[in-house]
Design goal:
The complex is a heterodimer.
Chain A lengths: L1 H28 L6 H19 L3 H24 L7 H23 L15 E4 L2 E4 H23 L1 H11 L1 H6 L4 H27 L5 H16 L5 H20 L4 H15 L11
Antiparallel strand pairs in A: 1-2
Chain B lengths: L3 H13 L3 H16 L4 H23 L8 H16 L5 H24 L3 H21 L1 H4 L24 H22 L2 H11 L1 H6 L4 H27 L9 H14 L6 H19 L4 H14 L4 H21 L1
Helix pairs in contact in B: 2-8, 3-8, 3-11, 3-12, 3-13, 4-5, 4-6, 4-11, 5-6, 5-11, 8-11, 9-11, 12-13
Classes of the chains: A mainly alpha, B mainly alpha.
């Protein structure tokens, strides 16, 4: 029972790392980016390629996945995404779906359609047993890494100058711009950070979620759930939303495997009916 | 002395009048039956896709509802018609009506979720509903056949006279007739005060509400209608191919139909049909030399389309459309 809770939390943590970049970019530019999963997939494949073909140790691939995807994010933001900010949501949706389709077919072409498997280092395999509760070592590792990330993000978001500028821009980009905050540059930075985190999440998630070319489509809904349920103006909102989703998903698949996949959809629809502005929405003037 | 009401009435009547290009379009659609007797199966697919896109046009082009899960109603209609035929009632028109009712009811049930909320919530909810239905169809294998698809559908001849054949003769004419009739209804509806009020809501919902249009009711109504249209398209798929697979509920259906509509241009009813022709033609050509990576090209097409050529196709069509009536008007005055 507690094992499931633990697995759910670890799963939720990965979801949070994957989705938090999306929530900030969505809030900041009001940009519907369905292609976020493609960045995560890229991170996953970077790790896979580095480990399988070049023999780089797992731990080292994680920061490389982060940096690689962040760089790609910066370039794409400059070249492709920027012209899209002024367009309407429909155009943005079409555009990002196009990117997803290209990513899916491209990954299929380059890497093959099979599930990718990585070999974790020995010290991350197996599980502890603490007081009758089985705890997977890798899950604990994920939990620690993502926990540290979440805390530092929360700290950066609330305590630093960068964070307060970012929050100001999310709340009202026009006023922020008027006050001399370089919103565009801020956004490019955030986009890079967000896609880098997605890449890192994708790399961490290979073991938990699997990795194949349909990854961006399969998990698109999860990211969107985290963002819409969690709201876009905080870090804590998406964090709790991701936890909730992770635990519900793992528990659902464990206890009622036949209908497991429904649970998150139903949960999402219900949440959207009850709280259309997100679970932790602040009153926005 | 012309009051505003008179002017609105006159403009609605004017837009209701049939245009030469429209008549030519439908005559051409009928003529291809004899012109391309070998491509009737493809033509049938185009007609069905056009109907599906017309359904999306009703909510997206006229009411401004962005949907990422329109395939939900397509699939529901397909399964409804397929199941009805499988369990003994093989009359296609009855199946069509049944599918439209089932999908319409589903649309009505889903409409409260659509009516409130912004674009993002709508995207989520439509996507979520489509995924839920896909899951249901997948796991409820005893009813739907699961991943193997629904087999053993037997469809009686249309009106008891025209039986479905291998070459798609009956199929194309049947689909085209259904498309035409439903198009007529949609055309009449969009050129009525109801259609006008939808456009008002799309352009400024707050202002529409202030001038006495109840946005939520109207949106719920059009969403229900559009859902039943999509159901009709689904029924056509089930009946003309006599098979229903999980594919009808797949996400790519929802994305494709959006692309179709955007290619043709939303908001003037013909967009879906023109888009369907272009789309199927593209798909046929591209997948002829690279069937596996068709998805990549469609993605590239989407990206380029949004970035640059959005106005290429439907802009051209609109240009022709806007020139023609100018000439007709010129003659009259």
């Amino acid at each position: 029972m507690l094992t499931i809770l633990f697995d759910g939390i670890a799963y939720g943590m990965v979801l949070f790392v994957l989705a938090c970049g999306l929530s900030v970019t969505m809030g900041l530019m009001n940009f519907v980016n369905l292609a976020h999963g493609a960045f995560a997939m890229l991170g996953g494949y970077i790790t896979v390629i580095l480990m399988q073909r070049l023999g780089v140790p797992f731990l080292l691939t994680l920061p490389l996945a982060f940096i690689g995807v962040a760089l790609v994010g910066v370039v794409l933001e400059r070249v492709l995404y920027r012209p899209m900010y002024g367009k309407n949501h429909l155009d943005q949706v079409m555009f990002t779906i196009g990117i997803v389709f290209m990513a899916v077919a491209g990954a299929d072409y380059l890497m093959g359609s099979s599930q990718q498997i990585i070999k974790l280092p020995a010290w991350l395999q197996g599980r502890f047993n603490i007081g009758g509760v089985g705890i997977g070592k890798y899950r604990l590792f994920v939990l620690v890494v993502c926990g540290i990330l979440a805390f530092s993000l929360q700290w950066g978001f609330t305590k630093t100058r960068f964070g307060s500028r970012l929050r100001a821009s999310v709340d009202d980009a026009r006023v922020a711009r008027g006050l001399g905050i370089p919103v565009n540059r801020l956004f490019a930075l955030t986009f890079a950070l967000g896609s880098g985190l997605a890449g890192l999440g994708g790399a961490l998630g290979i073991e938990l979620m699997g990795l194949d070319p349909s990854f961006p489509l399969k998990f698109m809904i999860y990211f969107l759930v985290v963002v819409t349920v969690g709201g876009t103006s905080t870090i804590t909102g998406p964090f709790f939303a991701a936890m909730l989703l992770g635990v519900a998903d793992v528990a659902g698949k464990y206890f009622v495997p036949e209908i497991g996949a429904f649970i998150i959809y139903v949960l999402m629809v219900i949440l959207l009916i009850v709280r259309p502005d997100g679970l932790f929405a602040r009153g926005r003037a | 002395m012309s009051t505003l009401e008179d002017r609105v009435r006159a403009s609605l009547l004017a837009s209701r009048r049939w245009h030469g290009a429209e008549i030519a379009f439908w005559l051409l659609a009928l003529a291809v039956f004899w012109l391309f007797p070998r491509n009737l199966l493809l033509l049938n697919e185009i007609a069905i896709l056009a109907l599906f896109a017309l359904s999306l046009d009703l909510i997206l082009g006229f009411a401004g509802i962005v949907s990422l899960g329109h395939a939900a109603f397509l699939g529901l209609g397909a399964y409804a018609a397929g199941l009805l035929a499988k369990h003994g009632i093989g009359d296609p028109l009855v199946g069509l009506a049944f599918a439209m009712i089932v999908s319409g009811l589903a649309g009505l049930l889903a409409s409260p979720l659509i009516v409130k909320g912004n674009d993002l919530t709508r995207l989520m909810v439509t996507l979520g509903v489509a995924l839920i239905l896909h899951e249901i169809a997948n796991s409820w294998g005893s009813l739907t056949g699961g991943a193997d698809g629904l087999q053993g559908i037997a469809i009686n001849p249309v009106l008891g006279l025209f039986s479905f054949d291998l070459f798609g003769k009956t199929a194309y004419l049947y689909s085209l007739s259904v498309l035409f009739v439903l198009f007529l209804v949609a055309r009449r509806m969009m050129n009525s005060p109801f259609g006008l009020s939808l456009r008002a809501i799309r352009d400024n919902s707050l202002r529409a509400a202030a001038s006495g249009v109840p946005p939520s009711q109207r949106l719920a109504l059009i969403y229900t209608i559009a859902a039943s249209y999509a159901g009709a398209a689904g029924a056509l798929i089930a009946q003309t191919s006599q098979f229903v697979s999980l594919d009808v509920l797949d996400f790519h259906r929802s994305a494709d139909v959006m692309l179709v509509l955007i290619i043709g241009g939303p908001g003037y009813l013909y967009g879906g049909m023109i888009g369907a022709i272009v789309f199927k033609f593209l798909q046929d050509t591209i997948s002829a030399f690279t069937p596996q990576y068709w998805m990549f090209w469609i993605g590239l097409f989407l990206v380029l389309f949004v970035l640059r050529g959005r106005t290429l196709i439907h802009g051209g069509v609109k240009l022709i459309m806007s020139r023609l009536p100018a000439r007709v008007r010129g003659k009259r005055s």
